[in-house]
Known about the structure:
The mean pLDDT is 86.
Amino acid sequence: DFWLRYLDAGVRLCPWFCEPLMVALYTVFFYLIATPARRAVLANLAVLFPDESAPRRHGRALRVVWNFAWSLVDAAHVRGGREVIDWEVSGLEHLQQLAASGDGAVLLTAHMGSYDLAAPLFGRCLNRRLHMVRAPEREPESQEYANRQREHQHSGHCIIHYNEPGNMLAVRLAALLREQEIVAIQGDRILFEVAGMRVPFSATHSWELPKGPFLLGMLSRCPLLPIFITRTAYRRYRVSVFAPYSWPQGRFDKEQATAEAAAWW
């Protein structure tokens, strides 16, 4: 838990005018030493931008780490109880429709570094309880420390559930959706021993997605609401909410319906 403690101490002690310099230095530092992560980002960028030169691709990868670093710093400020984030919301009408309906739903989002920041905002916008699913930290000490730091998020508006092996979380989430609760879950990558499914991305590549979020929505017949949180400027984020995906009426083939929902996502 050293880096988590170091980050939380840093945002408390570092003067605001030194923060951009520190973030820049640590971005370059981790970009150079975190070789597996750097290679993974570069490999993904090679798929997205196959015709770009190596220097241009490294520039994009460095920008990814830069934005992720700021997201971590901003999240640490929020965990410390400091209101430092400015929000803009696109597609607010979809959240308002969900709030007015009182129905259960699956908020489907991606690992973009700013998940923790926006979860309490969703709860306030919806004026309903939000159940947020998180993956546990890699080390037990880090998980214990993160639990203590996130205690303030366990409120009437936002409840955190950790997707730990053997805890039967899927059963709990299905029960919550039947009770017309709202569940926020990340649906863009495989973590731990979970079932996956392949979705075509291009003529030469496919995307492996977790099957659970789509299966959960299909079994509960709850709509899937896509939400993305993007860092746009210094301590400013955009929440983009898109129209929900609704399941077919009547009887249908479950495997085909799940595959169609994943392809839509």
